[in-house]
Each structure stands twice: as structure tokens, then as C-alpha cells.
Design brief:
The protein is mainly α. The protein has one domain: MFS general substrate transporter like domains (Growth Hormone, Chain: A, Up-down Bundle), CATH 1.20.1250.20. The protein is built from 22 helices and no strands. It has helices at about 5-20, 20-40, 45-50, 55-70, 75-85, 85-100, 110-125, 125-135, 140-150, 155-170, 180-200, 215-235, 240-245, 245-275, 275-280, 285-295, 295-315, 320-335, 340-365, 370-405, 410-430, 440-445. The longest helix has about 35 residues, at about 370-405.
Length: about 450
């Protein structure tokens, strides 16, 4: 094959993967993030009142999801590696859809805690599994672009999901249910339906993709095999080694700070907006609150794509993660010291842009030195440690709010954790050539 022919095959293969797989996996991620954050819309729109929740209890209910998620994260991703993404991702999605549906009939604080925990158990492994799955379909030089297209589903979940949730919340009395219960029902059903479709639609690997030509299959398979061989020779980290690798743990703590900011914002932004009436004397109906909640996330989606495009052109560097983390660390506490709703939402928009600019570029880093079972275990570990913040952020934010009577101090804590992420990316930059290979680890253990 001549060089121009190889280049044409490369372009067509990556284009087909980008259009055939990324939108569908992105749709799954969209539903995933909407289901796990639906409680943030339900809380200030009747659920907290009906169940008698304090801010601390609401934060604990939001966060306990991640305890169940964490317990099964690494085993779930190893199961995906063993059984294949098609079966495992479809199974995860149908399971969490069934659990999400049960929120429609929750009747007590304790029941809410149990269902949030079980939702985490059901969802465990989906996000790192999706990252791993997409990483197995494209060579490293195209991975950043593909992951950015996938990750844009997360901010768009709020852009589209907040007004959608508001419409469902407005259906108060339908089937004799409160609006927040209708909302839970409406966001759960798509998970079950799309999970069933995923079983038939997804393909585990390029070699099995009938929608690729023979030349495209051969090119993708060959390029990915060469990368695996290179990683095996230079940075061969097995599953056990990945769990003990220093760089993996550094990246885990970087991710912790980013996720702390993400979920503090995701779970409490609707509540903060709901408090504008008492703080500034303004009044918004349910749909207006939903639209205001969506405002920061549309610019965030654009910032994600533009920043990822820059990173793809120059090569992903730690500062592609660290600089946005630094900006987010400064902006998020500043937001709640603004003197109007517009100014508060404007600064929160800067925070959202920062967080979402960092995240897809972050996930391009571990895939560079992890492969096979090591990639499954390492990516799951990073996501697991990071998602400890998913429990800590809403719980600590709610507890600090109850203790102080406002969100200002809680957002200072959020800024501190994001600053930690910014600092640790500098350490990652210095450690990038220090990943031990399998032979070195074996020699040390001998």
C-alpha cells in the first residue's frame, strides 16, 4: 500500500469509528450522567421537602452512590476486559436503568440512601469501561480527539437534561405522582431501552466490525497491535503492577480534585440557583431554573472541544490539565461572592469551562503507558480513587452548608481540591519518564 493510499485508509477508518461508535457511546454516557445527577433536580423541586431532607442528608444521599460505585469499579472493568465491552456495557446499562426506575416510588430517607447506593453498584465500571473501549478502537494519535467527542456528552447532559428534567418536574400529578417522581421515571426508561440496543449494536474490536472495509480493518488492527507491542516493551504494567504504580496513583489524585469540583457543581448548582430568591430577591419558575442551570454547560461543551483540539495539535501535555484546574480553583469560590444572579452564573460558567476542558485531556495520559489488563485495572483505579470525591464533594458541601448557613466556605474547599489537582499535574510532568517496566518490577520483587 502506497503512502497516499495508507493515509486515505487511515482517514476513512477513523472517520467511521468517530461516527459509528462515539455518538452511541456518548448517548450512553449522556443517560448515565443524567441518571446519576437526577437527584440534584429532584432535591430542590419537592423531594427534599417530601422526604424531610437537610442539606447534609441530601449531600449524603448524592454521595453514597459513589461508595457502591467504588466497591465494584475495578472488578467490573476487569470483567469487561474478559467478557467484552458489548455484553458488559449493555448489562451495566440495563441494570442501572432498573434501579433508577425504583426511585419513582422512594418514600423515606433510608430508602433513598439504599437506592443511591444500589445505583452506584449497578453503574460501576461504565465510565472507565467506555474510556477503555474507545481506547481499543483508535491509535494514540487519534485518541484525544475521539475522547473529546465522547466527553462532550457530559456537559450536554445538563444543557439538554436540565430543561428535560424541568418538563418532567412540571408534570406534577400525572399518574397521581409528584413531579420529581415523574422525573425519575422519565430518565430511567431510556437507560433500559438503550442498554438493550447496545447488546446488538456494539462490536468488541475492529477485527469484528463488518462496517469497516478489509483495508480499514487491517490498518486499525495493525496499528493497535504495534502500539501494544511498543507498550509491552517499554512500559509493560500488568494488572497487579498498575495498582501499585506511582504514576497511576498520582493521576488518581489529580482526578480526585477535578471530580470534586465536577460533582460539587453538578449536585448543588440547582440548589444554589434555587437560593437566588432569598439571596437576591429574584424569583424563577421551575423551567427558568432548569434553563439557568444549563447556562454554564453550553460554553463548557465548546471549551472542551476547542481545548482538546489544541491539545491534539500540540500533543497532550500535563499543563492541558493543570491550567484549567488552576482557573477552576480560583473561579469556583469567587462565584458565590458575586452581587447578582447574572454575575454568579457567569463566574460559575468559567468554572464549568475549566473542569470540562481538563477532563478529556486527562484521560489521554494513562492510555499512553497502560495496556491490556494493566489498562483495565489502572484506568479503573484512577476512576475509583477519583470518584471517592464523588462521595466526598456532595457530603462535605452539604455538611459545611448546614454548619455555616451558606455555600461560600464549601466552595473554598472545592477550590482547594482543584488547586491540589493543578499542583499535582506539575509532579506528573516531572515523573513522565519514570514508569517502570515489567522486568524492573520483577527484579525488585525477586
Amino acid at each position: 500500500m502506497t503512502e497516499p493510499e495508507a493515509s486515505a485508509v487511515e482517514r476513512s477508518a477513523i472517520s467511521k469509528v468517530s461516527w459509528r461508535l462515539v455518538p452511541f457511546i456518548g448517548l450512553m454516557f449522556f443517560i448515565n450522567f443524567l441518571d446519576r445527577t437526577a437527584v440534584s433536580f429532584a432535591g430542590p423541586n419537592g423531594m427534599s421537602r417530601d422526604l424531610g431532607l437537610t442539606a447534609s442528608q441530601f449531600g449524603f444521599a448524592a454521595g453514597i452512590f459513589f461508595l457502591g460505585y467504588i466497591l465494584l469499579e475495578v472488578p467490573s472493568n476487569l470483567a469487561l476486559h474478559k467478557f467484552g465491552a458489548r455484553r458488559w456495557l449493555a448489562r451495566i446499562m440495563v441494570t442501572w436503568g432498573i434501579v433508577a426506575l425504583l426511585f419513582t416510588w422512594v418514600s423515606s430517607v433510608e430508602g433513598l440512601y439504599v437506592l443511591r447506593f444500589l445505583l452506584g453498584v449497578a453503574e460501576a465500571g461504565f465510565f472507565p469501561g467506555a474510556i477503555l473501549y474507545l481506547s481499543l478502537w483508535v491509535p494514540a494519535r487519534h485518541r484525544n480527539k475521539v475522547l473529546a467527542l465522547f466527553y462532550v456528552a457530559q456537559p450536554l447532559t445538563i444543557v439538554i437534561g436540565a430543561p428535560f428534567a424541568s418538563l418532567l418536574l412540571g408534570a406534577d400529578g400525572l399518574m397521581g405522582l409528584a413531579g420529581w417522581r415523574i422525573m425519575f421515571f422519565g430518565v430511567a426508561i431510556p437507560a433500559i431501552l438503550v442498554g438493550i440496543v447496545a447488546w446488538f449494536y456494539l462490536v468488541d474490536r475492529p477485527a469484528d466490525a463488518k462496517w469497516l472495509t478489509n483495508a480499514e480493518r487491517d490498518w486499525l488492527t495493525g496499528e493497535l497491535a504495534k502500539e501494544e507491542k511498543t507498550k509491552a516493551g517499554k512500559h509493560n504494567i500488568l494488572a497487579s503492577g498498575a495498582l501499585l504504580n506511582g504514576r497511576v496513583w498520582l493521576l488518581s489524585f489529580v482526578y480526585f480534585g477535578l471530580i470534586y469540583g465536577l460533582y460539587a457543581l453538578a449536585f448543588f448548582l440547582p440548589t444554589i440557583i434555587g437560593g437566588f430568591e432569598a439571596q437576591f430577591g429574584t424569583k424563577f419558575d421551575v423551567m427558568q431554573k432548569g434553563l439557568i442551570t444549563a447556562i454554564p454547560y453550553l460554553p463548557a461543551a465548546a471549551a472542551l472541544l476547542l481545548w482538546s483540539r489544541h491539545a491534539a495539535k500540540t500533543g497532550v501535555k500535563p499543563w492541558h490539565v493543570g491550567l484549567p484546574a488552576l482557573i477552576g480553583a480560583v473561579s469556583i469560590p469567587v462565584a458565590l461572592f458575586m452581587n447578582s444572579p447574572a454575575a454568579t452564573v457567569a463566574v460559575i460558567t468559567i468554572t464549568a469551562c475549566s473542569i470540562f476542558s481538563a477532563l478529556p485531556n486527562f484521560w489521554a495520559i494513562p492510555a499512553r503507558f497502560l495496556s491490556g489488563a494493566g489498562a483495565a485495572a489502572g484506568i479503573a483505579l484512577i476512576n475509583t480513587v477519583g470518584n471517592v470525591a464523588g462521595f466526598a464533594a456532595p457530603f462535605i458541601t452539604g455538611a459545611v452548608k448546614d454548619a455555616t448557613g451558606s455555600f461560600q466556605v464549601a466552595m473554598l474547599v472545592v477550590g482547594g481540591f482543584m488547586m491540589l489537582s493543578a499542583i499535582l499535574t506539575l509532579v506528573v510532568a516531572r515523573q513522565r519518564d519514570s514508569v517502570p517496566d515489567a522486568a524492573a518490577m520483577a527484579a525488585r520483587s525477586a
